[in-house]
Amino acid sequence: MSVVRRILPLPAPGETTFLTGVLRSEPAGGLMALVAAMVALAWANSPADASYHSFLGLDLGPLDLEHWGADGALTLFFFVAGLELKREFVVGSLRRPADALVPVTAAVCGVLVPAALFLLVNLTAADGRPGGWAIPSATDIAFALAVLAVVGSHLPHPLRAFLLTLAVVDDLVVIVIIALVFTSTVHPVDLALALALAGLWAVLQRLRISWGWLLLPIAVATWWFMHESGVHATIAGVLLGLLTRVRRDPGEERSPAERLEHRLSPVSAALAVPFFALVSAGVPVTGGGTLARDPVVVGVVVGLVVGKPLGVLGGTYAVTRFTRAELNEELTWAQMVGVALLAGIGFTVSLLVSDLSFSGHEADAAKIGVLTASVVSALLGALTLRRRTSHPR
Length: 393
Known about the structure:
Distance between the termini: 31 Å
Structural class: mainly alpha
CATH architecture of the largest domain: Up-down Bundle
Largest sheet: 2 strands, parallel
Mean pLDDT: 85
Number of strands: 4
Order of helices and strands: EHHEEHHHHHHHHHHEHHH
Oligomer: single chain
C-alpha cells in the first residue's frame, strides 16, 4: 500500500513557538520599512530633493550613509537570514528532504521563471538591458508577512510556515547569485583574512565559546575584510550565520543561533531594513509614459507580478503531480495562489540587486519597477487571501 505524503506539513514539536515569534516580529518591521520607503520616495521627489542626496552622501567613518545601508545594515539582515537558513536545514522544517522538496522546488522555480520573463522582455526590446535578470528573483519576507498580518489570523499555520520557508530558500538562492554574479574583482589577501576569521568563528562555536566581547570584533573584522575583498559585504553576514551552532546541548534552553536570532531579528526588522529602505528607495519618478514603457521597468514588474506566482505555483504543482504528495488537508489551492502572489513582493533584496546590476537612471528605473511590482503583488495577494478567509473553517 503506497504512502501519501502531505506537502506543507505541520511544523515539528517546538517549531510552532519559534515560528510564531518570527511571524510576530517581521510584520511590524515590514510596515516600518514601508513607511521609510514612502518617506524616501516623497523626499527624493520634493523641492528638497537636493538635501536627500546630501543625506545619502554624508560620510560616517569609512563609508557614506548610502553604502552603510547596502553594505552595513543589510549585512545584519543577511546574518539573521543565515541563522534562519542554518536552523531550517539542521533542526527545522527543511531537515527532512521529503518535506524540503516542495518549498525548495517552489523557491527555485520562483527565481528561474521571473528571470526568464525579464530576459524575454529585455532581449526582445531594442533598448533592453538583460543584465538585470536577477532583480525580480527575491521575496521580501517582512513585507509578505506584514500583508498576512493585515489580512487576518484565520490562515492555517502550514501556509504561513510555507511562506517563511519559501522566502528563506529564496534568500539562499539570491545569496549565491550575489556571490557568483556580482563579484568582478577579488583581492585574495582580504578574502583570505575574511575566511580565516570566519573559520575562527566556527572553531569558537565548536568549543562552545560565546563571549560577546570576543565574537563581536571577529564579526566586524570579517565584514570589513569581506567588503575590502571585492565580494559583497553581505556575504560575510550569511557566512557567519551559517557557521553558528544551532543544535542545543543537553540542558541548554536555547542554542547560540536561537539566542542571536531572538536578539537581532527585531533590530534587523525595525532598524536595519527600514534604514536601507530610507537610503535606497528614494528614486526620482520622472518620464511618465516613457518610464512605463522602459524595458527594465516592464521586465521587473512582469517578473515579480507574473513570474513569481507562476514559478511558485508551477513548482508546487509539479511536486504534487509527479510524486505521491498531496496538499495538506488544511490548505486549498486558492490559498496557495494568494501566497504565490505575495511572493512577488521583492523590495529589500530586489532593491539591493538593482544597485548591483545597474547605476544611474537604469538603477532608478529598476527600483521603480520593484516598488510598483511589490505594491501590486501585495494588493493582489491580500485581496485573494481576504476572500478565502472571510468565512474561516
